[in-house]
TrEMBL record:
<protein>
    <recommendedName>
        <fullName>Haem-binding uptake Tiki superfamily ChaN domain-containing protein</fullName>
    </recommendedName>
</protein>
C-alpha cells in the first residue's frame, strides 16, 4: 500500500516539504470579493479535492493574502489536543485518526501549520460518519460557528463548501450561508495531475489559469493547472480499527 506508514517517514516528509517555493497569484477583483466575504461574514470557504500536494500551499497563500490568523480544517475534532502537541513539541502523531489515508491530512499540511506561527486552528469534523450526509454537514457548520474564531478560512472537501443545496443534500456551505448570508466559497480548479485518496489516483482536466481569480461563471476559483500527489499518512484498515476500538 503506497502512502506513509511510519511516524519517522511522516516527519521526514514534513521536513522535506517546501513551504516557500509556491506563489499564489491573485487578481484584484477576486481578492476584493474574498476580502468582502471575510469582512461581512467573518468567513471564507475553500473547497478542495483531498490528497493534492498543493492544497496546503493554497491555504497558506490565501491566509497570507487576506491577513488571516484563524483556520478551520475538516479534520476530526478529537485530534485537537494531538495537533496542539505537534505544533508545540513535534509529537502527538501516534493517534490513529492521523492515519486514515483519505488525503485530508498530509505532510504538507503539517509543514504549513508549522510555518504559520501563531495560527489558531479549529477542527470541525465530528469523527464517525453516521450515514446522514446533510446532518454531518449541519454539524460541521455548527462547530465552525461555535468556534467564534472569525475572521477565518474554512477548508473542506469541495462537496461540502458549496453555498446552495446539491444532489448529495444540504452542504456545510449552505448551512453557513443561511447564518452568514455574505459568505463566499472558493473552489480549487484542478487541471491535470495525481492525488492520494486511500490510493494514488490520476485525473486529467482543463484549468483556465493559475491563481485566485473570478471565473467566467462568476465563481471564485484558485487555478492549479498542474498538481501532484500529496504524502499522506495511511495505515491498513485492520490496524486502524484495532487502534480506534474502545
Amino acid at each position: 500500500m503506497p502512502g506513509i506508514d511510519t511516524i519517522d517517514g511522516l516527519l521526514r516528509a514534513v521536513a522535506e516539504f517546501d513551504t516557500d517555493g509556491f506563489e499564489l497569484s491573485v487578481t484584484e477583483a477576486a481578492l476584493e470579493r474574498a476580502g468582502r466575504s471575510i469582512e461581512e461574514s467573518g468567513l471564507l470557504l475553500l473547497g478542495e479535492i483531498h490528497g493534492v500536494r498543493e492544497n496546503p500551499l493554497v491555504v497558506l497563500g490565501l491566509m497570507r493574502a487576506l491577513g488571516l490568523t484563524s483556520l478551520a480544517l475538516e479534520w476530526p475534532e478529537d485530534l485537537a489536543p494531538q495537533l496542539d502537541l505537534y505544533l508545540a513539541q513535534g509529537g502527538g502523531l501516534d493517534h490513529a485518526l492521523w492515519w486514515l489515508g483519505d488525503g485530508r491530512v498530509t505532510a504538507g499540511h503539517l509543514a504549513v501549520l508549522k510555518a504559520m506561527a501563531g495560527v489558531r486552528v479549529t477542527l470541525f469534523d465530528g469523527g464517525m460518519f453516521t450515514g446522514d450526509w446533510s446532518q454531518r454537514d449541519a454539524n460541521m457548520a455548527r462547530r465552525v460557528l461555535e468556534s467564534h474564531a472569525e475572521p477565518m478560512l474554512v477548508v473542506a472537501g469541495n462537496a461540502h463548501t458549496r453555498t446552495s443545496p446539491t444532489d448529495l443534500g444540504l452542504p456545510m456551505g449552505a448551512c453557513l450561508a443561511s447564518a452568514r448570508a455574505a459568505v463566499e466559497s472558493v473552489r480549487i480548479d484542478y487541471g491535470t495531475g495525481s492525488f492520494y485518496n486511500f490510493e494514488p489516483r490520476f485525473t486529467r482536466g482543463y484549468c483556465e489559469g493559475a491563481g485566485l481569480r473570478v471565473a467566467e461563471d462568476g465563481e471564485l476559483v484558485v487555478g492549479l493547472p498542474e498538481f501532484g500527489e500529496a504524502m499522506v499518512p495511511h495505515l491498513p484498515v485492520d490496524l486502524l480499527q484495532e487502534r480506534l476500538s474502545p
